[in-house]
Amino acid sequence: MEKVFLSKCENYSKEEVYRAIDKIFDLAGGIDKIVKKNDKVFLKINLVMKKHPDEAATTHPMVVEAVAKKLIDYGCDVIIGDSPGGPYNEKVLKSLYKVCGIEEAAKNSGAKLNYDCRTDDFLTSEGCIVKKLNMIKPPFECDKVITISKLKTHGMALYTGAVKVLFGMIPGIYKAEYHLKMPDIKDFSNLLVDICETVKPHFSIIDGIVGMEGDGPTAGVPKKTGLILASYNPYYLDIAGSYVMGINPKDVPTIQRAVVRNLCTGKIEDIEFLGEDINNFILKYKLPNTKSVNFFRGRVPKRVEEFLTYYLSPRPVFQYDVCVGCNRCYDVCPPKSIKMQNNKPHVDYRTCIRCFCCHELCPQKAVKIYRNKIINRFLK
Ligand code: SF4
Ligand code: SF4
Fold it and tell me: Does 345 contact ligand 1 (Cβ within 6 A)?
């Protein structure tokens, strides 16, 4: 049985979050089981894009502050960081930390913010789909990596939590390269598991106090869930996280790959929950519009499948009345399927790989997901 630690947390007030984080560390066997004094700890959080904490797209600064303060008071040196999609440099990070409230969290806790944008190649000893990965270097120079992800739906990956948050180890624009090389969700999920197996986070925490439902990871709607979850095992933590959202863990692509690779069983029954009864927190999160049904996959000839995918799979559509012509979607589109004409984006759906990076990273929420009416009928 793998253990997952649950701590009820009603809101983001300092008192409530600090109390809930104390409880998580106690349930996990005490802080000395997680870190040693003088350890250098990298706190890998979710800063997918510049968003105010109330939008629930990024790890809430109060959770980051509480964890960092706990570690620093114990005697650790703490560095907080992430690499968002798009450019990755000091200027981008500075503004990201400020808008997301992380600058304040670092100031209040005494943690350092990462501005070191060096990257390096790392061999993936357990790699299934890649033999080496170019990743941000500072976490590998620390004694421990602790992740604090956000409980959210995800357009491409369905769910994002402890494993998906590690895609931020890939530096900025290189994320697009991986999307391009691995447009199939099965391959992409294997990549995420490869990253997780290479980084080997020592402890994983999910901020599920307010999660995000619908068109996550950035354009969905905040959903109060009132829970912080944690585990030494990121796969079992994601089984618990998706279960809380009303998603069958076996529908989550990263969990599917982890099961195939014998990294977890995918079963909620194989988890011992400490702290709270998980059944008191199960909600029904609305799923992203990108959720499609592959009912024809493997049942029709390949060319027919491609034709059906082209016409029936969800696709990004642009709301020109909201779009400000900032070029962000054009910059991040892995296969360069977007062209800017008269300062507005236009997609070539024949080459679009449905990665939904444009949807994820549009600062105006101008990219909606169109789902074919036939598919809608199947999903009702
Ligand atoms: S990222 Fe959004 S606002 Fe910017 S050009 Fe694309 S659709 Fe328009
Ligand atoms: S248009 Fe959007 S969904 Fe299609 S490949 Fe480009 S970024 Fe991905």
Answer: yes
Best residue for ligand 1 mutational test, from 49, 315, 321, 329 (most atoms within 8 Å of Cβ): 329
- Cis, peptide link before residue 217, omega less than 30° from 0: yes
Q: What is the set of domains in the chain, with CATH numbers?
A: 2-280 (3.40.50.11440), 302-379 (3.30.70.20)
Rounded Cα gap, residues 201 and 219, in angstroms: 27
Which positions ≥6 away from 307 have C-beta within 8 Å?
none
| Centre of ligand 2 from the C-alpha of residue 355, in Å | 5
Of 64, 231, 43, the residue nearest 139 (C-alpha): 43
Cα distance between residue 74 and residue 72, in whole Å: 5
Please tell me the distance from the alpha carbon of residue 240 to that of residue 206, in angstroms, as a whole number: 10
- For residue 341, what are the contacts with CB-CB under 8 A and spacing of at least 6? none
pLDDT at residue 146 above 50?
yes
Distance between Cα 357 and ligand 2 center (Å): 6
Nearest Cα residue to 2 out of 195, 193, 238: 238
Task: Express each pLDDT in 217-273 by its tens digit.
Answer: 999 999 999 999 999 999 999 999 999 999 999 999 999 999 999 999 999 999 999
Q: What is the CA radius of gyration of the chain?
A: 20
